TrEMBL record:
Biased composition (Polar residues): 129-140
Keywords, alphabetical: Membrane, Transmembrane, Transmembrane helix
Source species of the chain: Halomonas cerina
Species classification: Bacteria, Pseudomonadati, Pseudomonadota, Gammaproteobacteria, Oceanospirillales
Protein's name in the database: Uncharacterized protein
Amino acid composition bias (Gly residues), ranges on this chain: 142-151
Source organism superkingdom: Bacteria
Region (Disordered): 121-151
Transmembrane parts of this sequence: 21-48
Length: 151
């Protein structure tokens, strides 16, 4: 290692990087980087042809701005109507798909019919006259279990 006596007499640590190297690096980069940039600019200006067409997509004619979006005139009334339709769908009876025999009916009544009639085999269709929107009594309470047309 270095001699401690030598460090005390020099006044500083002599093992540091010489100050000349960072200064030369800064001077080199100050000269080299601008030269490279000027060279690239000259290369691009002379060797590559200018692109035809607009420089930016904004140079074309402006696109027309659409009118304001249609807003709800009365959001409260629309929400009330939506809730009313949803409630009618939940409590009502009707066809979902006549061809496959699918109907919608209240959940309580559907569970009651499931207990009474059971599940059909997978892949087979229930009897066409078993449950239809017209013969399901939705007002029947628990335990009534009778279809309107078969009482």
């Amino acid at each position: 290692m270095g001699d401690p006596e030598h460090i005390r007499t020099a006044g500083h640590d002599t093992r540091d990087v010489p100050a000349r190297l960072p200064v030369l690096f800064i001077v080199f980069m100050t000269v080299f980087v601008p030269l490279v940039l000027v060279g690239l600019w000259g290369l691009m200006a002379t060797l590559w042809p200018a692109l035809s067409g607009p420089a930016t997509p904004f140079a074309e004619e402006p696109v027309s701005v659409p009118d304001a979006p249609p807003l709800q005139a009365s959001p409260e009334a629309d929400l009330t109507a939506l809730k009313r339709r949803m409630e009618q769908r939940l409590q009502g009876v009707g066809w979902i798909d006549r061809e496959t025999g699918r109907v919608y009916l209240p959940i309580d009544r559907a569970m009651q019919l499931l207990v009474e009639h059971g599940l059909s085999e997978r892949g087979t269709r229930a009897n066409d006259d078993s449950v239809t929107p017209s013969n399901v009594n939705t007002s029947a309470g628990p335990g009534a279990g009778q279809e309107a047309g078969n009482e």
